[in-house]
Amino acid sequence: MELWKMSQKVSELSDVIPYYFFSLVSSCLSLSTVLVVFSLGTWGVLGIIVFSFYVVIPYLLFAVPVQVLFNKHPKKFSLIYFMLYNFFSLLAVFIYSSLLNFDFSMDILTTKNYYAISLLAALFFWFWDSVFLQKKSSVS
Q1: Which of 4, 38, 64, 66 has a CA-to-CA distance to 88 between 20 and 30 Å?
Q2: Predicted pLDDT of residue 109
Q3: Pick from 136, 135, 121: which is nearest to 60 by CA?
Q4: Quick check: pTM over 0.70?
């Protein structure tokens, strides 16, 4: 690869990185806020901050790579993208919960919280991805 082509690729990537960051931070804060509100605890703002650091790991490992792939063919508020985010969210929440609870049984799949958290995580990430990164205005 010629040097000028590589320089052009790096330049294009550096223009998009802030939008990935805004999408990730907005998703983490949104999901954390909902988790704190529905936990009915006394976490408050501290809980939002703590949960944000807690949920950033699955987002970084599972959602951001899919997001990068989707940005090759951008579509705002695509239902297909939402369904794929939902699939990866179900997988991420299952793995993350299993690792944190040291329980690799399938019992987690019978809880409502598993599906609620997975759906909300996918919904928030899909929404903020569509707002910050997806350039086309078509809806599919």
Answers
A1: 38
A2: 65
A3: 121
A4: yes
